[in-house]
Amino acid sequence: MSLYHSPYCLQFLSFSYILNISSSIKIMAASTASIPSHIKAWVYNEYGNIEETLKLDSNVALPQLKDDQVLIKVVAAALNPVDYKRALGFFKDSDSPFPTAPGYDVAGVVVKVGSEVKKFKVGDEVYGDINEYAVNNPKAIGSVAEYTSAEENVLAHKPSNLSFIEAASLPAAIITAYQGLERVQFSSGKSILVLGGAGGVGSLVTQLAKQVFGAAKVAATASTGKLELLRKLGVDLPIDYTKENFEELPQKFDVVYDTVGQTDKALKAIKEGGQVITIAGPASPPAIWFFLHSDGAVLDKLKPYLDSGKVKPVLDPKSPLPFSKAIEAFAYLKTNRATGKVVIHPIP
User: Fold this and answer.
1) pTM beyond 0.85, yes or no
2) Is residue 308 part of a domain?
3) Domain assignment of residue 93, given as a range
4) If we measure between CA atoms, which residue out of 317, 65, 340, 40 comes closest to residue 202?
5) By CB distance 3.0 to 4.6 Å, which of 117, 155, 162, 168 could disulfide with 107?
């Protein structure tokens, strides 16, 4: 069950579980039928602002399946900043050829398995970040499509207590949060300050730091209207960045996890011997610029915390947006005002 920063929380939760059950029934039925040779997907054929280049195409070739991959009927897809940065050509030298359907995060149902796949079978509900290395030849057909493919090592079985919408919101963000904390060897008894604590990654860093790593104290920054969400996430010291400069606070921290790009200020907020890690690089040493490596084993490791509800997905109140509103979803993501994750669902 996720945390929704919305007065309609309970109504939406009930609705999301109805959608989840309905989606599972439909997909399981469809998985026994013939898989189409061409699918619907949002694609672009040139680099530029994704709101301008993205077009709906109803005749995209079905992704070809490799021996170590599974074919997934997409139920829900979450959007990430890397999607629109990729669309701008930030890593065009290592990108896959056009046409490109964006989308790294997926939740859906396996409809076909490659000959070397051992972990999954047709009918399994799965989730994951489909690109092991985000900027190194990411898949041409991502999750903002009816079907996508992924290697079995980047996927995990979807926790049964999570809807497809909730599951889709997690992979890239929770893996980034976890691997970043591991990178700085965060451990029980340490303190942490999370910059951007209500965002997609930040909202999970705050939870993992306390629930998984045993943080002694968790502080986080957010705007005034999001401070209550921070408290619900277990943050001990919510900081309103519109009223306070975190780097001027008397308290210093063992680790500052920067999700917003303020490493220079972050270095002023650490204790002697403390560390700053950022996902909003590039960053100058001693700050560490970190990028995730998609890994289904991390999702498996965190499954008990998701099953128990100790760690919860955080969805933006606008989520989910329907497949037809993909352009609007990206435009909203680019405002940097989302709380938690922006998810697209249903997908035809």
Assistant:
1) yes
2) no
3) 3-170+313-344
4) 340
5) 168
